[in-house]
């Protein structure tokens, strides 16, 4: 692994993103718009409802968006031969994956700042814990989505197939993370399954920040999310192929 190569890969990805305005809009604007839409939906129901589901959505949206963008972008580079050319140079697999993670992590930081700013500053989401820690959890969750997107891109041959991993890897996590039913009220089997899904811990961390002033549980959940992200990057390095057969 070479820090210079990793930074060069990250710079190249950021340059591509800067030129792709539609992708930038999806990364930065869409989560804010969706959160605002949800707050509008609950405007006549009461702020308590938005205070309950808003933190979970701050965990879900960065994860989903980064998963989609990363898996499709990586597959596009593999099918076009760009990935093969990069790996034929003094670029290791880990350098490539860490470069992608660093680039998308920086974008995720901006995304999290915008989403948290809109939720707390404009939509009056009630936050008891530190607001900056809310952003940290959102960034970690976005990096988790990036890591899983890099991992699943190795098993898809087309961009459409990459999107098809959504029902298998993303939707079950959304259903079981506590957004619809609190995790402690799930049936035993589903509760046990929820306990091994990373999005559950990201959602728990967000909920802790909006219901409790103590941050010990938040850091514990954040550590689990980061652990899953590191494992996803490691698996991505093992399964990364030069090109799609």
UniProtKB/TrEMBL annotation:
It comes from Nocardioides marmotae. Keywords: Antibiotic resistance, Cell membrane, Membrane, Transmembrane, Transmembrane helix, Transport. InterPro entries: ABC-2_transporter_component, ABC2_TM, ABC2_TM_bact-type, ABC_2_transport. It is found in: Cell membrane. The lineage of its organism: Bacteria, Bacillati, Actinomycetota, Actinomycetes, Propionibacteriales. GO terms for biological process: response to antibiotic. It is a multi-pass membrane protein. One of its GO terms (molecular function) is ABC-type transporter activity. Its main location: membrane. This is Transport permease protein. One of its GO terms (cellular component) is ATP-binding cassette (ABC) transporter complex. The chain crosses the membrane at residues 24-43, 55-75, 96-120, 132-155, 162-181, 222-240. Pfam families: ABC2_membrane. Residues 22-243 form the ABC transmembrane type-2 domain. Belongs to the ABC-2 integral membrane protein family.
């Amino acid at each position: 692994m070479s820090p210079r190569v990793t930074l060069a890969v990250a710079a190249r990805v950021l340059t591509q993103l800067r030129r792709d305005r539609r992708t930038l809009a999806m990364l930065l604007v869409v989560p804010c718009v969706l959160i605002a839409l949800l707050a509008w939906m609950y405007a006549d129901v009461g702020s308590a409802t938005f205070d309950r589901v808003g933190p979970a959505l701050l965990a879900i949206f960065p994860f989903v968006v980064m998963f989609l963008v990363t898996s499709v972008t990586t597959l596009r580079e593999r099918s076009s031969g760009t990935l093969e050319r990069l790996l034929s140079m003094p670029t290791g697999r880990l350098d490539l994956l860490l470069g992608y993670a660093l680039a998308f992590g920086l974008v995720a930081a901006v995304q999290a700042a915008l989403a948290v700013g809109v939720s707390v500053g404009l939509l009056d989401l009630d936050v008891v814990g530190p607001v900056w820690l809310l952003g940290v959890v959102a960034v970690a969750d976005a990096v988790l989505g990036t890591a899983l997107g890099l991992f699943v891109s190795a098993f898809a041959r087309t961009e459409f197939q990459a999107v098809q991993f959504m029902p298998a890897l993303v939707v079950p996590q959304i259903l079981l993370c506590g957004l619809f039913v609190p995790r402690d009220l799930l049936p035993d089997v589903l509760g046990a399954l929820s306990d091994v899904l990373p999005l559950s811990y990201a959602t728990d961390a967000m909920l802790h920040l909006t219901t409790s002033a103590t941050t010990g549980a938040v850091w514990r959940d954040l550590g689990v999310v980061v652990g899953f992200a590191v494992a996803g990057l490691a698996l991505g390095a093992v399964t990364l192929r030069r090109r799609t057969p």
